[in-house]
Structures are given as C-alpha cells and as structure tokens.
Amino acid sequence: MSGExxxxxxxxxxxxxxxxxxxxxxxxxxxxxxxxxxxxGQNIVTLPQQMVKGIWSFSLMAVPFFITMGVLMGTGGISxxxxxxxNSLVGWMRGGLAxxxxxxxxxxxxxxxxxxxxxxxxGSILIPMMVDEGYDADFSTAVTITSSCEGLxxxxxxxxxIYATSAGGVSVGALFMAGYVPGAILAIALMVxxxxxxxxxxxxxxxxxxxxxxxxxxxxSIWALLAVLIVVVGVVGGVFTATESAxxxxxxxxxxxxxxxxxxxxxxxxxxLEQCIDTLAIxxxxxxxxxxxxxxxTLLHVPAKAATxxxxxxxxxxxxxxxxxxxxxxxxxxxxxxxxxLIATPILLPVAQSVGLHPVQFGxxxxxxxxxxxxxxxxxxxxxxxxxxxxxxxxxxxxxTLPFYVCMIIxxxxxxxxxxxxxxxxxxTGSLIG
Length: 434
Description:
Blueprint: H1 3-20, H2 25-40, H3 46-55, H4 62-74, H5 79-90, H6 96-112, H7 115-132, H8 137-147, H9 150-153, H10 158-167, H11 172-178, H12 180-201, H13 211-236, H14 242-260, H15 266-299, H16 302-313, H17 317-334, H18 337-354, H19 359-373, H20 381-390, H21 394-417, H22 419-428
C-alpha cells in the first residue's frame, strides 16, 4: 500500500470509527485530521493555521447574523401569526391542520432557516392542536418533522452560505433564489401525501376559505415576512452583500420582536443571544475543523479519486446522479448537515459537474438530502426533537413518517433531474450566471 493510500485510509477510516463510537462530530473531524497529518509526516503546528484559514472569510460572517435573526424571530411571537396565515390559506382542505402545518413551515422556514427550530417552535403548538382535533399523534409528528425541511431550502438559510463557501465561486444570491421553487415542490409533495392519508383516515376539514380573513392575516404577518424580503431582495438586487443583509435583518428582527410583536423583552433578548452563541460556537468549530480536514483531502487527491471511482461504476448520467443522492442520503443518516456540506462538497461537486449538474442545482440537492438525513435514525436530530416535543416513541414516529419519506424522495428526484426547478428563478432574476 502506498503512503498516500495509507494516509487516506487513516483519514477516512478513523473518521468513521470516531463517528460510530459517538464522538462529537467536531472531535471526530479534528482527531482524524491530526492522525492523517502524522501519517503524512506533516507538522501538526499547521493545523491551527488551516483552521483559522477556514473561517477567515467575509461571506461566512453572514452565518452568525442569520442564526441570530432566526433565533430572535423564532422566539419573538411570530409562530402564532404564521400559523393563522397558513390556516386562512389552506385550512379549509381535508386534513386542514396538516396542510396548515406544511404551509406554516414554508413561511417560518424563511425566517428561521432551521429545521430544528421549526419543529420545536411550530411543533409545540400544532402537534397538540392536531391531536385535539382528532389527528393521530404519530401522523401529526411526522407531518411536522418532514415539513420542517422546507426551511432548509427557503432563504435565508445559513446552510446555503456554508455551501457557497465550500463550493467556491457560487453566488449566495443565486442559491437563495434557487430554494424557493424546490421548497414549494417539497411542500406540494407533502401536501399530496397528507391529503391521501387524511382522506383515508377521515381527518377533519377546517373552516371555509375567506378572502377577507386571508388579507387580515397577511396584515398581521407582514412584519415577519418583510424580514425575508429585506434579505433576498437586497442580496439579489445587489443592494448589499449577504453579510450586510444579514446584519440589517438582525436589527430589523430585534425591532419587530421587541417593539411590534412584543414577544420578547430585553431579558428575553439576552437569553436569545446566549442561545445564538451556543449554536454559533458549534458551527464555527465545525467549519474550522472541516477546513483542515478538507486540506488533507486535497493533498491526498481524494476528490479526483472519488470522481474517477464513481464514474468507473457507470458512465450513465442518470446512474451517477442517483449514486450521488444515495451517498448523501447515507451520510445524512450518520452525520449532521454542516459537516456533510463542508466535507462532501469538495469531493462530490466535481463529479456532479462532470455530468452536467450546475453547482447551484447540486447545492439544492445536497441540502435536501441532508434534510432527509435529519429525519432518519441513528443521527436524526429533527426526528429526536419531534419525538420529544410530541412525547411519542421514536420508532412509532419513524413508522408514521414512511409515507412522507416517499414524498420527499419524489421531490428530490424531480429536483435532481429537472434543472429548471432550481435554476429557473435565479436565471429570470439575473442572480445566476451560466
């Protein structure tokens, strides 16, 4: 075995061993990097240099701002208003509260950018509400956790910023615009599945649609929805960068949460900032460690070897795209989203481009694959949160989620094989070049 092959085995083998042993993901990445550097004969003093280099990026400054915006808006009293807006729009349908759950997640996801926050916030309100109306508790939980993945696609999403940084040269504005239609496709797929199950189980309808009530709820929710408009229009229109828009959105979110919706007092603001710091510390250490890990991958030519291996299995474009999705789905079952994006992007993006996938389209595919992974055992963070919020056994929630997995896979395949789903909106808005 050559020295390069041995170092590659040390890097990837030790990483997966640490994951299996349930080491924290940042430690797994860092320790496997150190072992690899030792096997290559490199001075580990360069490790902190690579870590600092990984987070020394202006675009990454948007991440803490988007996280802060999401926390402030998520705890600032907007959940009820977005639920009421969704109810006025789709509550009249068979299984109306399930539809409300899905549509509310689309709205809320555009503010929080987090599937976990969506599940914890909306789930704590909607799951008991659905159960009281006669819906099965496991069905209610399944709808909540699967629809929360819409928030990963709908901008502003800090995971999109992380992907743009990892991919290099990908416009954050283009990624933001690219998420709207796939997010809607996912929502429609979940609504179709919910409707079929609601008809089968004779779940109730809500009140008939009222145009006046719909406009009334829009008026109440407009302040929350404007936060997304500030970010997306500002970035796509070239008014300011993603980082600048995120900073402005934080100030706007603070004003709306404290002075308009009055869901937060100043004590609550400080508590929210503490939560932001906890989240940000995890994200930044992951980015720093993954930068050093990625440097080892590059030195060992792993991306080129992975591309050669995958294309050696088949030269058929359809087969390769399916393989890429399977790899990402499997990684999603054992790893969290941020490290998958940071580690897998440099390896798999060249393969995706070799079969004609645009980097923006591949980014949407990766985010949705990782989102599905958040709902699957053994490392499904959103699955665990949903089970805890609903106080339901995880295995029963997984069983109830099986039909929704099918809906999500259908949406994923549509996004994978129809480029215009992801690229149409960025192109007509001029945020996508090429």
